[in-house]
Amino acid sequence: MFEAAVFYVFGAILLCSALAVITARNPVHAALFLVLAFFTASAIWLLLRAEFLALTLVVVYVGAVMVLFLFVVMMLDINLERLREGFWQYLPLGALVGVLMAAEMTAVLYGRWSGLLAPPRLAAAGDSNTKALGRLIYTHYVLAFEIAAVVLLVAIIAAIALTLRRRKDTRGQDPVAQVRVRRADRVRLVSMPAAKDE
């Protein structure tokens, strides 16, 4: 009974903080509400005895990603009025994507509750949930895991390629030109007359 009450308290905080993320006018406040949502989601995962996922969420998202978000938001001078200009233009597309995501989640949850999509039971007796998660990822869900890894790699490469700018005022080395150099290009012998003492 106590565990169910704690779950509902954390669930209510998670829903309120997620709603505040999308309704906050200040981007710093939205990022801080997102941090609160991550913390409450990790607390719910702890209630579900998924300690590895809870700690990963706190360490990766709260400890790294949200610090980066806050740094970028606070360092850039974001024009909020300009960001809100195209809100109503993209609202139908956003609503359609939201309805599709809700339908997918409903189908998955209905399949689990009805027994049509029973999760695979690959955990042996006495295994920790981290070991069971690793066994599931690298056996039953290995294709989805590899696809997600490729997508993340492509996203990293695209982010680096989009932000890489060549500055004209900086000088750098060209390794190809250094390897192809000849002795005549670097050393020049000059014949000079010998100096005479007077």
Describe what this molecule looks like in 3D:
This protein is mostly helical. Among the domains are: 1-78, NADH-ubiquinone/plastoquinone oxidoreductase chain 6, subunit NuoJ (Four Helix Bundle (Hemerythrin (Met), subunit A), Up-down Bundle), CATH 1.20.120; 121-162. The protein is built from nine helices and no strands. It has helices at 2-23, 27-47, 51-75, 80-83, 87-114, 129-140, 142-163, 175-179, 183-186. Helix 1 runs antiparallel to helix 2, helix 2 runs antiparallel to helix 3 and helix 6 crosses helix 7 (142-163). The longest helix has 28 residues, at 87-114. It is elongated and about 110 Å long. It starts with a helix and ends in a 12-residue tail after the last helix. The model has no long low-confidence stretch (mean pLDDT 79).
Q: State Rg.
A: 29 Å
Order of helices and strands: HHHHHHHHH
Shape: elongated
CATH H-level superfamily of the domain at 1-78: NADH-ubiquinone/plastoquinone oxidoreductase chain 6, subunit NuoJ
Q: What name does the CATH topology of the domain at 1-78 carry?
A: Four Helix Bundle (Hemerythrin (Met), subunit A)
Number of helical runs?
Answer: 9
Main sheet makeup? none
Any guess at the CATH architecture of the domain at 1-78?
Up-down Bundle
Structural class: mainly alpha
User: In what range is the share of β-strand residues?
Assistant: under 5%
CATH C-level label of the domain at 1-78:
Mainly Alpha
Q: Work out the helicity level.
A: over 70%
Strands, total number: 0
- Which regions have little confidence, pLDDT < 50, spanning 5+ residues? none
